Amino acid sequence: MSTLLHQTLAHPSLHPVNLGILAEKKAWLLNLNCVVLADAGNAYDALFMAARAALWDCKVPRMCGVEYKAAAAPGTKVAESGEMDVDRDTEAQQSGFDTRSIARAVDFELPDYWDEGAVLDGRERWPVSVTLNIAGSKMPLVHYLDAIPQEEAATPLRLLLVFSFPPASSPKLQAMRTLGSGELESDQIRDFVTDGEKYAQKLWDALNRKL
To answer: Are residue 70 and residue 126 in the same domain, yes or no?
Structure first.
């Protein structure tokens, strides 16, 4: 359960771009801890809804860059114009390594500001899951949603579909997994994916109205 959640949410297509602090040096680490206190069935769908709700409220702290400059090396003098005139000999100018050059290091600090920070980038892309419980041995196969534990135990096959609905873009199937001993043909999978997208869209809209 945790593996599916991690592999889906950690996909590069869902990475927020505003977690970076210093390019190729520092970035915020986003941790999401999900705990199931009681399993009344359909735990996968509940986990993805809880994860999306938690990430929707996540804020990235506001930062400001800090630049440090080393003190002037001995033997330097300040010109009248205010610019620093470094006294360098001919050998140092010809060398590619100058120990008296100014060393710089860039860091960041958190300003004391009333705002909690910016919302997590791409939160509209965080997916939801729909579990189709597939029953029956004859064609056409039937499916139902929101199974309780007893129904899950009696169902030979469950199909997990994880959909994302990016704004101004077509829906994306982020993950798909089967649970159980049953098998599906490619045509059956295509039909179930079509039905699952409709269910996921309704779930997506209902969850957005609560956020």
So the answer is: no
